[in-house]
Amino acid sequence: MSNPVEEFNAYRSKMNDKILADNNKIIKRIFNLDTNAFSKGALDVKTKELLGLVASTVLRCDDCVKYHLESSYKEGISKEEVMETLSIATLIGGTIVIPHLRRAYEYWETLEDNQG
Amino acid sequence: MSNPVEEFNAYRSKMNDKILADNNKIIKRIFNLDTNAFSKGALDVKTKELLGLVASTVLRCDDCVKYHLESSYKEGISKEEVMETLSIATLIGGTIVIPHLRRAYEYWETLEDNQG
Amino acid sequence: MSNPVEEFNAYRSKMNDKILADNNKIIKRIFNLDTNAFSKGALDVKTKELLGLVASTVLRCDDCVKYHLESSYKEGISKEEVMETLSIATLIGGTIVIPHLRRAYEYWETLEDNQG
Amino acid sequence: MSNPVEEFNAYRSKMNDKILADNNKIIKRIFNLDTNAFSKGALDVKTKELLGLVASTVLRCDDCVKYHLESSYKEGISKEEVMETLSIATLIGGTIVIPHLRRAYEYWETLEDNQG
Amino acid sequence: MSNPVEEFNAYRSKMNDKILADNNKIIKRIFNLDTNAFSKGALDVKTKELLGLVASTVLRCDDCVKYHLESSYKEGISKEEVMETLSIATLIGGTIVIPHLRRAYEYWETLEDNQG
Amino acid sequence: MSNPVEEFNAYRSKMNDKILADNNKIIKRIFNLDTNAFSKGALDVKTKELLGLVASTVLRCDDCVKYHLESSYKEGISKEEVMETLSIATLIGGTIVIPHLRRAYEYWETLEDNQG
């Protein structure tokens, strides 16, 4: 049976594959950079994931939030650390962030439930 | 039978309860401020609701718009007043506001129909 | 049978008609301007459609993107030209544009399929 | 001697005149709408000015904030009412609004000082 | 004697050089992409410059607007074409774009005057 | 002799004092939250400062960026860590972030020079 995490990932993969097959050089390089930017450097992967999460949240990009929540989950970041990151996003970005906070919280629960 | 207003409110309440139960101090205080900011002060409640509505609309936050539409409806604000507020939002925020205007208009109709 | 393009257009038309019937002068004039701004002037219609598309994409307005994709399609703009426009949007607007790029790509495919 | 309010208004008038003399029909009509939207309708002028102020503030447009602060001042809106409006903007738009709040507060003081 | 165009370009070059000398791989590649994206492809350079201009304007990035105004000027794009592009930006992005329109208009005048 | 860091801090303090003296309860509480959110919790202060920096940068708030650059500097965060954070901001937020990156880089240099 499908669930929200699998559905999101399946759609994301399917469309990314189509877009990359289209061979637009600029888009391909941006997708590539996206992979590189979150690998270990002066900052560790965990910190970078939280940077990606807070930036996605203040910019109110639900799909970007989902992506970084799943990566954060896989990196072993705790729920408390995620919530502190989201609280900073809500303070900096204001109450318009709250609807995205609700959806983020729900998605995190699904990630945890999938594990059960 | 459920309708869009009830569905929105049910999801909103369920997730707010979960988030608040999580005890993140910053988030709890922001939720609290949100309740206080729209109560009577130098400005009356009606004016404050319209301020919340126009700000939510130019920031293109559908859920925030729905919330302030329902509060406005309960405060007895007229459709004409709501439309003037939304027209100012569309002028200031530009034609990218129009898709949100369509959804706002539809939600207002549901609020009126629920009453019937 | 309905498809995503028809559904989008039907909802858009229905709500626009209701909003315009409501006789708010400011909103009516903005809708009117929207029609005028994309007609031939110093710039041709094709260039203007691409301007509308790139602006809608960086502002992450899915419905505006759909609208300009359909107009672009009807103007005979090629998929390659659309992709270059979307690549500029993704570079200027950043990776938060990517979820909208996925939906734009899918919508363009539907436009092509409808034609088949 | 010039002061910040006069300087802002002089630059604004000079550039608006040049832009309008250029005879772009779309721009002329938008400028025109801007005048109409804030005149008395179902909502009074004072409420509309506050709507313009809160929308400009959450969108972090310093020049738009200045414009609506001066109109608000001329309409006899009190400092307390302005501050409540700005507090709603800061809550909805988040702490990134604070730098604009500082400049708004300073501009309001200049408006009051000019009167003295 | 320095003028606004020269000052802007000098600061831009100086800081870009410093940033690139710093050897952050992600930033270097983004700067690189920026050069590539606006070169001739399915779309000609002139159309791409106008795409860059309208996107920068709706995103209210004065420095990006200046950059694309100068490139547009060098490509031989006419004032009327620039104004149509800016009018579409103002319609889509709303009246909060107007302060940026004033500064764009002034910068275009400087570009023309420098030529004199 | 004054320098950009001192000037920024002096203006910021002066206006914050005035705004807080005005006794608007909502604004006072938001200022208060801002202090609390960046103190040690599940995440350490250094990580939180970088979260504040990346969020401020993608939202293109120069004053917020300056504030978090100074706090980061005082926390002993290295230039390389700051640059990685800013590179993630530029990737996620797009090339419209670049003008803010230039000003951030310049401000960091001033922070280092002040120390010399």
Automatic annotation (TrEMBL), chains A, B, C, D, E, F:
<protein>
    <submittedName>
        <fullName>Carboxymuconolactone decarboxylase family protein</fullName>
    </submittedName>
</protein>
<dbReference type="InterPro" id="IPR029032">
    <property type="entry name" value="AhpD-like"/>
</dbReference>
<dbReference type="GO" id="GO:0051920">
    <property type="term" value="F:peroxiredoxin activity"/>
</dbReference>
<dbReference type="InterPro" id="IPR003779">
    <property type="entry name" value="CMD-like"/>
</dbReference>
<dbReference type="Pfam" id="PF02627">
    <property type="entry name" value="CMD"/>
</dbReference>
<dbReference type="InterPro" id="IPR004675">
    <property type="entry name" value="AhpD_core"/>
</dbReference>
